[in-house]
Amino acid sequence: MDFDPTLLRAFVAVKETGGFTRAAERLHLTQSAVSHQIRKLEEQVGRQLLHRTTRRLTVTEDGEDFLRYAQQILDTLDAMTRRFQPSPITGVVRFGVPDNFMGDRLPPLLSQFARAFPAVRMEVCVSMHTDLRAAIRSGELDLAVVMSPPNVAEGTCLRRTQLVWAAAETFEAPKGASLPLAFFPKPCVNRQVAGSALDLTAIDWHVVFTSASPQGIRAAVLAGLAVTVLTREEVEPGMKIVDGRYGLPPLPSVEFALIWSESGKTPCACRFGQMILEMPDLAVGARA
């Protein structure tokens, strides 16, 4: 049995307004048209849904049950209409993000945005060594997630995380020799923070491996070639945290922040930025 949503809306309107006259006003119809719709609905259901007298109108027991289903159907139809209505927003969103921020969350985010705004084109730069701040300043990107060094407040904070020294579980520092390290190319916050911390120690160290790829850094670490700096969440099986070993100094926490270019707050970019802010398990606090 298929029910016409128009008839369901008429029935709900009569119940909520308490009569045919006010329901007709809400639906922008005549009173006789609403009465006809209710009669047609009752004929289709085969049950009396409303009890009418000269003084009052009440909903029957069957009508109360039917009302719950009707409201659920209409709520679902309204949600479906909002979800699939054509979007008036068009344009291009240019977004930059480091590899270690979103991980597996990025594809679902892009898919959700593409479904909601099919007329918007996405241009995404995912990299650990690209200077995303410079791209924002030059207007090459509209918005970007960047890792902020300690005591640097910028944009909107999305997440705070702790930097750690990491090595392979089997790693042992060479005795009497320089400590081998692996880093991303400059500019890199991990490398910057590590260098500043090491400058305050007497450790003899050198960069033995450089890669722009997170997979390359992980491979070098897991092979036992070097120690590196990662966020605590990036330490994976086969690695160990070596904070305090080999004379390594403690490292600070850092922030991931969402920043914008001066001309980047277009309607489509703002919608994408809002989706990032609303992502679960990302936001831990906001700072304008």
UniProtKB/TrEMBL annotation:
Key word Transcription regulation present: yes
Family membership: Belongs to the LysR transcriptional regulatory family.
Family annotation (Gene3D superfamilies): Periplasmic binding protein-like II, Winged helix-like DNA-binding domain superfamily/Winged helix DNA-binding domain
Source organism, top-level taxon: Bacteria
Cited Pfam families: HTH_1 (PF00126), LysR_substrate (PF03466)
Record's keyword terms, sorted: DNA-binding, Transcription, Transcription regulation
Protein species of origin: Variovorax boronicumulans
GO molecular function: DNA binding; DNA-binding transcription factor activity
Span of domain HTH lysR-type: 1-60
Descriptive protein name: DNA-binding transcriptional LysR family regulator
